[in-house]
Design a protein that fits this description.
Blueprint: H1 2-40
Length: 41
């Protein structure tokens, strides 16, 4: 029973984290591209 509750709380935490990570990865890739372009100039 306790393990189930832990799994649920973990899922609640991990779910939003994964969604945020998608956004963070997108922002990081955009930033890296922008920095590469600005360094080439």
């Amino acid at each position: 029973m306790t393990e189930m509750l832990q799994d649920v709380s973990v899922a609640r935490i991990v779910g939003p984290l994964v969604n945020n990570n998608k956004y963070i990865v997108m922002m990081l890739s955009i930033t890296v591209r922008y920095e590469c372009i600005s360094h080439e100039r």
